[in-house]
Amino acid sequence: MQSTTLNAPPKPFLKRLAEGLMVLALAGMVIAVFVNVVLRYVFNTSIVSYEEISRLLFVWLVAIGAIVAAFEGAHLGFDLVTSRVSPGVRKAMFWVSQLLIAMCMCFLLWGSWEQVIAGLNSFSTVLGYPLALGAAATLVLAVGMLVVVLRDMVRGTPAESTDATVE
Fold first, then answer.
1. Cα–Cα dist 56/50, whole Å
2. pLDDT tens string for the chain (167 positions)?
3. Which of 131, 136, 134, 142 is nearest to 107 (CA)?
């Protein structure tokens, strides 16, 4: 039997880049937290900047991961209502939901932009990086999710997940 991964099309560059960034962020978080745990329990001290680094990496990991999951159609779905209505009603519900998601992402984009602007003059306590760096994660999240919503609207259907669904 032949493996399905051998026949899979190559991943787009942006997806590989996003997954690579997620791996780096997770590795950075693990190292920072592990070093601090060892320092606390063995030497009764810690590196305070590692807490800020791991927090910032976590925010970016979640934002990028949410975009990747949306592109793959891997977000949690709830089809109790849509599975029981006619195809026409299901299509109308799809459009309403996509418009609501787009509206929420526009609000998130607007609010994130305001936070980035405000964060340019505010700095983290320990490392001193601009707090706009943390707020930029939600800005990127909003843009990425808007791209997914627009893609789904052009297609007229959401991305199908490759995983099996539980019923």
1. 10
2. 445 556 667 778 888 899 999 999 999 999 999 999 999 999 998 888 888 999 999 999 999 999 999 988 888 877 888 889 998 999 999 999 999 999 999 999 999 999 999 999 999 989 999 999 999 999 999 999 999 999 999 988 876 655 545 44
3. 142
Of 32, 20, 34, 40, which is closest to residue 56 (Cα–Cα)? 32
d(CA 83, CA 165): 13
Contact 105, 138 (CB under 8 A): no
Token pair recorded at residue 60: 């970016």
CA distance 82 to 94: 9
Residue 94 to residue 96: CA distance in whole angstroms? 6
d(Cα 100, Cα 94) in Å, to the nearest integer? 10
Characterize 53-69 residue by residue with b for buried, 16 or more Cβ atoms within 10 angstroms of its Cβ, and e for exposed. Answer: bbebbbbbbebbbbbbe
Instruction: Supply the pTM of this predicted model.
Output: 0.82
